[in-house]
Every structure is written in C-alpha cells, then in structure tokens.
C-alpha cells in the first residue's frame, strides 16, 4: 500500500520519515526531540498564518450564545485561546487537553481571576 508521495508504507524511507512524527505507533512517545520539533513547527505555522490571532477567536463565533457551557480545547497548547475566551465570556468554563510535556507549568500563565474557569 502506498503512503504519502507514493512511497510504500512498509519501505524504510516511509518508516524513517513518519515513525517519529505520527502519534500512535509508539515511537513518537519515546522521542521527546520529535515532539519538540513537531510542537515548534505547529507554533511557527500559527505565528505566520495571515489573519490568525488568538484575540480573533472570541470574535469569530457567538460564544455567549452557548450559555453556561463547558468547552474542551483538545490540543490547546498552553491555553492561550482558553484564556482569551475566559477573559471575554464569563459564562463558559474551559478545559485544555494537551500532551503533558507541552502543557507542563502552563497553569502559571492563567490569570488568577480566571483559574476557576480555565
């Protein structure tokens, strides 16, 4: 079976390229450097995507219409979006789910007045 770019999935080239980047095959969990590279690449993409800004998230959806809602932000990095939403909408509580290594210490970034909701 062919993988991306027409390379056979069982070929050494495919395994070398994807075994350290794709979660689920066990090798990503053992390679912290690959995790850091992946997280850095994702952050670089977010930093350089025109029009993307954390502040814009609260403006692109009518969050207040949700009422007293609980939102789970899966893959939410260090909670920047959750913090932004909590600042602007007092009716929602947010839970950020992220890899332990990525989120370690992020609770220190949450403003004291928001800690009950983020």
TrEMBL record:
It comes from Metarhizium anisopliae BRIP 53293. This is O-methyltransferase domain-containing protein. It comes from the Eukaryota. Gene3D superfamilies: Vaccinia Virus protein VP39. The lineage of its organism: Eukaryota, Fungi, Dikarya, Ascomycota, Pezizomycotina.
């Amino acid at each position: 079976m062919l993988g991306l770019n027409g390379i056979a999935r069982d070929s050494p080239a495919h395994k070398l390229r994807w075994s350290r980047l794709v979660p689920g095959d066990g090798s990503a969990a053992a390679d912290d450097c690959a995790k850091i590279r992946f997280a850095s690449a994702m952050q670089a993409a977010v930093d350089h995507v025109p029009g993307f800004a954390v502040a814009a998230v609260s403006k692109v959806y009518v969050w207040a219409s949700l009422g007293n809602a609980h939102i789970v932000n899966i893959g939410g990095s260090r909670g920047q979006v959750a913090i932004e939403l909590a600042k602007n909408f007092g009716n929602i509580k947010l839970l950020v789910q992220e890899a332990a290594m990525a989120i370690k210490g992020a609770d220190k970034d949450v403003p004291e007045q928001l800690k009950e909701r983020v």
